[in-house]
Amino acid sequence: MLRPDDSTLREGIAGHRRRIDLYREGAVTPDEFRPMRLSYGLYYQLDHTSHMQRIKIPGGMLTAAQMHCLSDVADRFGRGVAHVTTRQDIQIHWVPLEEVANIYDQLHAVGITTRGACADSVRNVTACPHSGLLAVEPFDVGPYAELINDYFLFNPLNLTLPRKFKIAISNCPRDCAQGAINDIGLYAHVRQDGARSQPGFAVHVAGGLGAQAFLAKRIRDFVPADDILILCEAVVRLQHRLGERKNRSRARMKYLMKKLGEARFAEALDAEIARVERTRGDTLRGETRTFVAAYRVPPPRTAPGPAPATNGAKGYAVWRATNVAAQRDSGYYAVTITVPLGDYTTAQGRALAGLSENYGNGTLRTTNEQNFVVPFVSGPSLPEFYHHLETIGLGEGDANHLSDVVSCPGADYCSLAVTRSMGMAERIRDHLATIGLAPADLGEFRIKISGCPNSCGQHHVGDVGLTGMLVKGTDGKERPHYSILVGGAVGEEGASLGQRLGRYPEELAPQAIVAVARCYQAERTLGESFAQFVRRVGLERVSAAARAAVPDGAR
Q1: Domain 406-554, what fold?
Q2: Nearest-angstrom CA–CA distance, 504 and 481
Q3: Nearest 5 degrees, angle CA 346-CA 454-CA 429?
Q4: For 493-522, how does the pLDDT look when each residue is reduced to its tens digit (9 = 90+)?
Q5: Alpha-carbon gap, residue 351 to 374, rounded angstroms
Q6: How confident is the model at residue 50 (pLDDT cuts 50, 70, 90)?
Q7: Three-class SS string for 133-192?
Q8: CATH class of 6-108
């Protein structure tokens, strides 16, 4: 069994409950308690008296029952609001410490654990939210995300790594899981071996953002899917053994790759793979095959059919064009629910769970863009589905477009942030609502905001990325500014880090962003992405557009 049994998981929660009690009694110091609480995803909030609980959602895949449970937890312990993160997790704020273990018991009852949601561990394994749904994907990567998560949950190496470790699995050209910025990025492919089709993965390693961003490097063109645990185990072992232990700022695997160089890294990994193969190879292949063979997708609840072009409701046409994707299962559609800034109420969460049960197949997926996806909505049901979304305040279209801004929680919650990144996102959305630029006319265009250099908002790989900073004015007062990057992108091929456009006060950044978007809209070639556009016309052309909108004296 890959997934730990019920008693192991319950013992882990009971042990954590004891540690919390010891801390509250004063028998454990705050410094001693820090790695304990982080191992189960519990963070201090800005005020250092309340806590934020991060909850792992492997591959972003949720059942309706789990979604109901998350809403119950947020109602009882989180002021009725939850947050979707840029790694498909759910976060609940203002959690009282004395209730944390009770939360873990409640989540455990529906198959959710928070173990490894933070700390020096294998974090939440992300996957494309359309896994198993689209005709363009080679095969469903969903079971492999759950497989890898379960394998490392109580792995002896986990929680004792030099630093956090991130794994992502992508299965379409859009790289929804963002493999390019992970310690391990897996890209699904099918290789023909005579008459036999063999699923597998191209493997990229040593990506990561933060103060110094690195794109992952390709180390294998193809690893058979049955060997994926062998590969992941070997890479994690290598990081565990050779990763930096003294200087945490240099402890991510990207620095190990930089230190060794690609050739020496490859040699060390080959040796590690051989060791895993010798000792555990056949066992891991067998467990992988058994797990994937047992994986089942619940059947849809409604009959398939074509999707109506309109239902007469204002906004339906835009929503239908931007938030609805035809599945490979004829007559069914995957619907993206735009969740502004990633925050949703528990009433909305329960309603989404109900919609997935009544119109889908009883499942939902979180996305790295801080939205939800409900699969298996039949074509004839789409108008009614949209009507229900409008009723609960989640009928906004333009998912993954200009107005669908991604943001870390920022200084409203986080003790590390220096600016209110969510407030900046709201400012951009408000500005867009006044200028008449239709995001759907621009096409997919991602704005990503981080409130500090740690890049929780993944600003390095946004079409436009913003990093918060405080700048002292001539009056000696510090005011929030944003360093703006342009042209970032993920993808198995063509990933890029954004180039620095300039630094703007928060009140003027929206004008600069709109000017850049209009420049792209006017001068792009057919089918050209914004990252390709920036590479073609050059940074100076894009910078000139921004400068024209925001004069030098105002910056």
Answers
A1: Sulfite Reductase Hemoprotein; domain 1 (3.30.413)
A2: 5
A3: 50
A4: 989 999 999 999 999 999 999 999 999 999
A5: 12
A6: confident
A7: CCCCCCCCCHHHHHHHHHHHHCCCCCCCCCCCECEEEECCCCCCCCHHHCCEEEEEEEEE
A8: alpha beta
